[in-house]
């Protein structure tokens, strides 16, 4: 047997051992007495919450709950309506806008809004404003956050759910 042949054999045996150790968490050298009596060792051995490749073919629950405050969401879109919306994701609570100039203003802004809680609360709202020269100053960000929160409260009062 040549040296190359020995290396191929060692590699093949190593690959088989590694492959055999994958999956069920059992090694190749485990005694046969500890194995389940079924013909396939993985059938029926899944724990609850564990997924397999076959889960992609199962029907999914289409009724998902959006964990975003609807008043903050609507108020954010209303207050920043002068900015072109680039993407929105109500499931994660992210609104990304392009650059736009506010009415009566001379500087263009771009905003990213994150609403990460269903509560109508200041901690649920995160606003990041950018100008073309960098981040906007903190006072401007605070003014936009306050305007969004005020409008969200107005929407909630108008909805008679206060």
Automatic annotation (TrEMBL):
What is the scientific name of the source organism? Sulfitobacter sabulilitoris
Q: What is this protein called?
A: DUF3576 domain-containing protein
Q: Does the keyword Signal apply?
A: yes
Annotated spans, Disordered: 28-47
Which Pfam families does the entry link to? DUF3576
Q: Where is the signal peptide?
A: 1-23
Q: Which UniProt keywords apply?
A: Signal
Keyword Signal on this protein? yes
- So which domain of life are we looking at? Bacteria
């Amino acid at each position: 047997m040549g040296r190359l042949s020995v290396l191929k054999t060692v590699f093949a045996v190593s690959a088989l051992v590694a492959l055999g150790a994958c999956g069920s968490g059992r090694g190749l050298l485990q005694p046969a007495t500890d194995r389940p009596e079924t013909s396939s060792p993985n059938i029926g051995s899944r724990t609850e919450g564990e997924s397999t490749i076959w889960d992609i073919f199962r029907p999914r629950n289409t009724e998902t709950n959006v964990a975003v405050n609807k008043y903050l969401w609507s108020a954010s879109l209303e207050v920043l309506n002068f900015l072109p919306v680039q993407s929105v994701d109500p499931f994660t609570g992210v609104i990304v806008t392009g650059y736009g100039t506010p009415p009566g203003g001379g500087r263009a802004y771009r905003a990213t809004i994150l609403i990460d809680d269903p509560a109508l609360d200041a901690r649920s709202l995160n606003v990041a404003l950018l100008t073309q020269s960098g981040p906007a100053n903190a006072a401007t960000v605070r003014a936009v956050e306050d305007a969004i929160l005020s409008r969200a409260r107005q929407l909630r009062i108008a909805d008679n759910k206060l």
